[in-house]
Amino acid sequence: MSSTEQRLQDLRNRKARSEAGGGQARVDAQHNRGKMTARERMEMLLDEGSFQEIDALVEHRCRDFNMDTNIIPGDGVVTGHGTINGREVFAFAQDFTVYGGSLGEMHGLKICKVLDMALKTGRPVIGMNDSGGARIQEGVASLGSYAEIFFRNVRASGVVPQISVIMGPCAGGAVYSPAITDFVIMVDQTAHMFITGPEVIKTVTNEVVSFEDLGGAMTHGSKSGVSHFTASDDEGAIMLARELTDLLPQNNLERPPDKKTSDPIDRSCDALDSIIPDVASKPYDVVDVISEILDDGAFLEVQADWAQNIVIGFGHLGSHTVGVVANQPKVLAGCLDIDASDKAARFVRFCDAFNIPIITLEDVPGFLPGTNQEWGGIIRHGAKLLYAFAEATVPKLTVILRKAYGGAYDVMSSKHIRGDYNVAWPTGELAVMGADGAVEIIHKRRIAHARNAEQERARLTEDFNEKFANPYKAAALGYLDDVIEPNETRRRLARALEMLLDKEELRPARKHGNIPL
Ligand code: HXC
Hints:
Bound molecules: hexanoyl-coenzyme A
Distance between the termini: 66 Å
Number of helices: 20
CATH class of the largest domain: Alpha Beta
Helix content: 25-40%
Oligomer: single chain
C-alpha cells in the first residue's frame, strides 16, 4: 500500500470509528428501547443525501477516570447541516450510545460551533436531545460548555428559529437550552425533562413520582407548558420538526415562505354563518372557525393540550404563513387566565420576531376570576399578553366573533393597541361586561326598589343587551373597521393581509423593553 493509500485508509478508519459511536451492543440497546440512533435521526430529519457532517473527528480532552483510554471520535454528538425540503438548516443529535450522550467540554463546543454558524448564515437550528446531562468525569468543563450553549441560544433567540426535539433524558440544567429555544417537541414515553429527578425529589420532599409523571411528554404537554408538541415516536417528532421548519422563515430578516394553494381566497365560509349558537352561554369549537378560514383547512396547533382556553397555531391564508390566536369558548368559556396569557404572549412574540402576521379570533368574556388567579399574579401574566400584542409590529388582524368584554377586549389585539385590521361579526358583543353583571351594578337601587325585582332585572338586561351587546357602537367610533358577514371572513382577511404585507411600523429605539415577566 502506498503512503497515500495508507493515509486514505487511516482517514476511512477514523471516520468509521466515529460513525460506529458506542458500538453495536449499545446501538441495539437504543433500538430495543424504540429509539433511533443519532445518525438515523439526522438522516431522517434532513433531505436524502443532504447531510454534511462537521466535527466527526473531535475528541474529548479528559484525562481523569481513565477517560484517555476511552476516546470515541465525534464525542457523543453528531453535528452538521443539510436541507429540509431544499432549505438549508443546521442540526445536532446527541448520541446516547457514547457516554450516554453526556455533554463534556468538546461535545458542548461542537454544538456551539453549529449555533455560531447558524447565526452567521441566518439558518434555523434543530437540536435532537438524548443525554445523561453533564459528563460527570469532565466536571466543571462540561458546565462551562453548557453555559456557552445557553448563551448562544439566547443570542440566536429571535434571529434564527430554534427547535428542540427531546428524544431521551434531558435532566438538570440541561433543560435550559431547549427551554430557551422556540419550540420543544417531546417523544411520548422516551423523553423526560426535569430539573431534579424522582430520587432527589423523594429525599427532599418525600414525594414519590415516576419519571413519566414527573417529566414525560404528557406532563410537559398538558401541565407545565414546557413542551409544544407531543409525538408518539422518534419519526413522528422528526416529521413535526420538518413541518414546523417549512412554515418558518430562515431568519428574522426574511418573510416565511409562501405555500401555494388551490383554495380560492374568495371562498365563502358558509358554515360560519350559523356557527355561533343562539344562546350566548353556549359554546362552540373555535378550531372549526380557524379551519374554515385557513387555506385547505390546515392548522398546526401549538400547545394543543395546555391552557386549552386559548388556541394558538400556524396555517396559511392566501398562501402566506400566519399565526392564529383564538379564545376557545369550549374551555372555561374562553376566559383569559394565567396560563392562557403566557401561552399566547410567547406565541405572539415568536410571530412578531419572525415576520409572521397574526390573526386574532376573539370571543372572550374577560379574565378568569378567583383568588388562585389573583394570588398567582394574573395581573402580571395578563399584562404579558397586552404587552406582546402592543409590541408586535407584524400585520395584526382581529375578528370579534362574539364576546369582547372588559380589559380582555383591549388586550386581544384591539385597534387601540394597534391592531391593523379589526372587524366583528354581527354577533359581536363589545362592552365593559356582560349584561347580567352590568345591570346588577348600574341598576342595583332600581332593582331593589322595583315592585317586581325579577321582571325589572329581565327588562333592564334586555335593554342593556339591545344597546350594548352588539358591534355597532364600536363601529360607529371607528374602533372596528367594519362589521362583516361570517361567510366573508376568509376573503376579507386574505385581502386585508395582502394589503398589510408591506406594512412598516417603527417603535422608539431602546435597548429592550421590560415585559412584566
Ligand atoms: C457520564 C454518563 C452520564 C453522565 C450516563 N452516562 N449519564 N456518563 N456522565 N452524566 C453513561 C453511563 O455511565 C453508561 O455508560 C451510559 O451512559 C448509559 O447510561 P445507563 O445508566 O446505563 O443508561 P440508563 O439506565 O438508560 O439511564 C440513563 C440515565 C442515567 C437516566 C441518563 O444514566 C443517569 O441517571 N445518568 C446520570 C444523570 C445525571 O445525574 N446527570 C447529571 C445531571 S446534572 P456505559 O459505558 O455503561 O454504557 C446536569 C447538570 C447540567 O446535567 C447543568 C447544566 C448547567
